[in-house]
Amino acid sequence: MISEVTMPSMGADMTEGTIVKWLKSEGDEVKRGEKLAEIETDKTVVEMEAYSDGLLRKIVVAEGEKVPVGELIAYIGGADDEVPGGDGADAQQGEAPAEEAEETEEEAPEAEASAEEGEEETEEAEPEAEEKAPEPEPAPQAARPAVAAPATGGGDRVKASPMARRLAEEKGIDIAQVPGTGPGGRVTRDDVLGFKPSPAFASVAPQRASVELDGSDINLTTMRQAIARVTVRSMTEAPHFYVTSAIDMTQLMQFRKNLNEALSESGVRVSVNDMILKACVNALIKYPKFNSFFDGDKLKGHSDINIGIAIALEQGLIVPALMKAQGKSLVEISQAAKDLGNRARGKGGSLSQSELTAGTFATSNLGMFDVDTFSAIIVPPQAAILATGTVTKTPVVKDDEIVVAEIMKATVSTDHRVADGAEAAVFLQEVKKNLENPAYLIV
Which of 229, 240, 338, 416 is catalytic? Predict the structure, then answer.
């Protein structure tokens, strides 16, 4: 029986994908679960798996073409199965008007921006017009000094035009030092432009360099647009709440040092983040509610813990998952996490479809950026995400004495439809117990 192969969804925010490379040729045998093609999404390149057995009878979409999710890209079937006629081009062409409409809508903000820029130019032109307005006839020459001293109004305020004040501020000039040549000794723009500060004034008020900022629009990459869609969806659909705790990492840091010394000959090196991942896995095994999804009138449970790791790329952020983490030791989690990070950055292979779409819980660590604490946005449809900051030497009170401890702040963001505050606090305390007693991480 012939079966259609369509562009799969590699995430809730994906709307289209590009065929980077077909890993099978027409006529090749294909097994269910076998890698069929490399697909470029908004965020990364993913290996697409086949969903049926048979022969790759016909490739409908060539390499390099972009296709909407759900669009036909190939046929798999038996050698004697009849392949439907046509190549799916009509269906793809039907999408063109919508794409053109989207482009037209995207141009609208640019037009609005241009209109705003025009208004700004008009506003800036008004002070100059004020400067060029006809001045009253001057007093008789004998009664008017050659250069008037800066005029002041009530309260010793210097009389000056708005343009003159702005120029003086930009140039770092004390406008009270500028002689005014306007009506009544008013300081004008030309007075400021022609002002030469005395050496004494220049020594205490050096001229400030002009600062120019690039105010042009920045076009968003497809990845940044995807991040915008998924974060808006998360904050709109899932009622977030946050629970934070300070974790004493003193014992764990010493434990990690000893462990890495013991592992030095094997080339394995365990990071603090690897130990956080293991602590989360242990807590999720004990409290599986945080490994579930909200699904209308029920919580959708999962038999595997696929723990996501937020990875910052040059183009943006992705959260691929370390699969079946419940069966991995600390060292195995460390090795798998490094492999996942390398492939996410395009080193040593690509991420799989399941790694990008099947995460059940997530973590985000900004400790390497010297961040103390922050709250992360839940990756939909997951129920929670743990955010951790840097490990900092901090004075704390132990047994009524002040000692120095290595403290890390951790915040769990939770979907209130799935769990309440007390439950999130208990879950976070379990993570804390594992990190403060590192022996739990290797049993």
Answer: 416
- In this structure, the strands spanning 66-68 and 307-309 are unpaired
SS3 state of residue 382? coil
The one-character DSSP state at 159 is P
Per-residue pLDDT of the chain (443 residues; tens, 9 = 90+): 888 899 888 776 678 888 988 999 988 999 988 889 988 887 778 888 888 899 999 999 999 888 898 899 999 998 888 888 744 334 344 444 444 444 444 444 443 444 444 444 434 444 444 444 444 444 444 444 444 445 554 445 778 888 888 888 888 888 888 888 888 788 888 888 888 776 655 555 556 677 888 889 988 878 888 889 999 999 999 999 999 999 999 999 999 999 999 999 999 999 999 999 999 999 999 999 999 999 999 999 999 999 999 999 888 899 999 999 999 999 999 999 999 999 998 887 789 989 999 999 999 999 999 999 999 999 999 999 999 999 999 999 999 999 999 999 999 999 999 999 999 999 999 999 999 999 999 98
User: Is 416 known to be catalytic?
Assistant: yes
| Contact partners, residue 358, CB within 8 Å, separation at least 6 | 306, 321, 323
Q: What is the distance between the alpha carbons of residues 105 and 100, in angstroms, rounded to a whole number?
A: 9
Estimate the crossing angle of helix 330-344 against helix 272-286, to 10 degrees.
110
- Give SS3 for 408: strand
3-class secondary-structure state, position 184: helix
Task: Report the alpha-carbon distance of residue 410 to residue 372 in Å, rounded.
Answer: 9
* Cβ(2)–Cβ(75) below 8 Å: yes
Alpha-carbon distance of 248 to 432, in angstroms, equals 8
The rounded distance, in Å, linking the Cα atoms of 189 and 411 is 55
d(CA 77, CA 49): 15
First to last CA, the chain: 50
Helix axes 250-263, 272-286, angle to 10 degrees: 110
Contact 61, 8 (CB under 8 A): no
Query: Is the preceding peptide bond at 381 cis, omega within 30 degrees of 0?
Result: yes
Rounded CA Rg of the chain:
33
> Whole-prediction pTM value?
0.62
Q: For residue 432, which amino acid is it?
A: K
DSSP letters, 54-69, are: EEEEEE-S-TT-EEET
Q: Look-up: residue for tokens 């392949």?
A: 83
